[in-house]
């Protein structure tokens, strides 16, 4: 999963401090693997350098200064491009797809379109594997079958998610 | 949209059963030799779309063009005749006549089109061999397995060398291996004879045998983004 794009997407609803970003990330996407503070600050520093975020304000306190980050127009474009680009189909893709769907809902983008684009990408790969099976030997067929079953599971997930988009939008407040 | 060289074309199809819309917009074209999967969840309108395309039911509005014919404007009799000569059908269950042998089942559409018995049976035998079930020619449908029966059904659908084959969940009742073999034989034979196939399925593994897919959701049919 792209942590940079996810943090950028979270910033679309308004400027946040690094700490708020970590909390929002953990709440929506970090059930199994919460972010370390170090990851947040190193990622924000990279996004800052690339002009995708800017510092919106600095609060002085007893500890280190707290920067508040805001997404730039270039950052919004970057998130939009990431969401629109289908992921390369591969096993255990669900966490990235889930993140994209949730972020699309949170930022009022078309999550159904995102799922359809991904479905087309999966089916394109499945067609290629099916063609390879038609002409391949038994080893080819078994290797392709393994990949096809995984892709089929992804597609079932895409279908179920598409059918539950309204409920998911309510749950994430999109 | 009038894509050059298209064989079957749907325009703005709508169909409702009572107050319930079953089909709420379909615009696409299918070309000769193309295998197109119609996908969607149960109850999404896939079968209604297939029946409209094949002229089995009339849409409430919109049109279906097949070659130079506007199916939606033809009489029932003319539509039936066209289905007999130009279309082939494969369904999930119960399509073979139980009283006839498998050979007679495959020869039946040829006989209905006026082919002499001897010639019809020779062609039927060839199709059974191509579908790898020539061994069941003399048996009745009740005496063969589901996989064999489905191959006989495909042979029957192909026997008249139709220009369009409509297949509605053709492997839904088969195990994986039999299903895949039937799909391979069906799509190979269709491509060889330059027939178009409209393959209705809810399974992505079946759709992967097609060249592209049309997705039906809540009665709305559309070609998927990036379909190649």
TrEMBL record, chain A:
<feature type="domain" description="Transcription regulator PadR N-terminal">
    <location>
        <begin position="7"/>
        <end position="77"/>
    </location>
</feature>
<dbReference type="InterPro" id="IPR036388">
    <property type="entry name" value="WH-like_DNA-bd_sf"/>
</dbReference>
<protein>
    <submittedName>
        <fullName>PadR family transcriptional regulator</fullName>
    </submittedName>
</protein>
<dbReference type="InterPro" id="IPR036390">
    <property type="entry name" value="WH_DNA-bd_sf"/>
</dbReference>
<dbReference type="Pfam" id="PF03551">
    <property type="entry name" value="PadR"/>
</dbReference>
<dbReference type="InterPro" id="IPR005149">
    <property type="entry name" value="Tscrpt_reg_PadR_N"/>
</dbReference>
């Amino acid at each position: 999963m792209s942590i940079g794009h996810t943090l950028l997407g979270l910033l679309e609803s308004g400027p946040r401090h690094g700490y708020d970003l970590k909390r929002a990330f953990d709440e929506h996407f970090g059930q199994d693997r919460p972010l370390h503070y170090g990851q947040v600050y190193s990622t924000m520093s990279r996004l800052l350098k690339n002009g995708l975020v800017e510092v919106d304000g600095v609060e002085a306190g007893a500890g280190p200064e707290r920067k508040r980050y805001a997404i730039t127009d270039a950052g919004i474009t970057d998130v939009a491009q990431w969401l629109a680009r289908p992921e390369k189909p591969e096993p255990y893709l669900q966490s990235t797809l889930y993140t994209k769907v949730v972020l699309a809902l949170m930022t009022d983008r078309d999550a159904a379109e995102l799922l359809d684009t991904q479905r087309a990408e999966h089916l394109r790969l499945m067609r290629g594997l099916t063609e390879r099976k038609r002409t391949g030997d038994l080893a080819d067929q078994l290797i392709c079958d393994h990949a096809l079953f995984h892709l089929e599971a992804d597609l079932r997930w895409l279908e179920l998610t598409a059918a539950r988009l309204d409920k998911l939008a309510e749950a994430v407040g999109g | 949209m009038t894509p050059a060289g298209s064989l079957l074309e749907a325009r703005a199809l709508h169909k409702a059963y009572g107050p319930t819309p079953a089909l709420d917009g379909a615009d696409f074209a299918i070309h000769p030799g193309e295998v197109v999967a119609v996908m969607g969840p149960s109850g999404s309108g896939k079968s209604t779309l297939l029946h409209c395309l094949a002229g089995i039911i009339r849409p409430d509005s919109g049109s279906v063009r097949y070659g130079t014919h506007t199916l939606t404007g033809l009489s029932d009799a003319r539509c039936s005749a066209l289905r007999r000569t130009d279309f082939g059908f494969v369904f999930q269950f119960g399509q073979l006549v139980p009283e006839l042998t498998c050979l007679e089942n495959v020869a039946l559409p040829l006989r209905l089109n006026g082919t002499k018995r001897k010639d019809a049976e020779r062609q039927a035998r060839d199709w059974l061999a191509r579908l790898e079930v020539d061994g069941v020619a003399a048996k009745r449908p009740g005496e063969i397995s589901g996989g064999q029966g489905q191959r006989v059904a495909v042979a029957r659908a192909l026997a008249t060398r139709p220009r369009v084959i409509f297949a509605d969940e053709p492997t839904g009742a088969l195990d994986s291996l039999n299903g895949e073999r039937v799909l391979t034989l069906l799509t190979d034979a269709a491509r060889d004879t330059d027939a178009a196939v409209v393959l209705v399925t809810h399974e992505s593994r079946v759709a992967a045998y097609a060249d592209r897919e049309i997705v039906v959701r809540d009665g709305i049919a559309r070609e998927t983004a990036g379909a190649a």
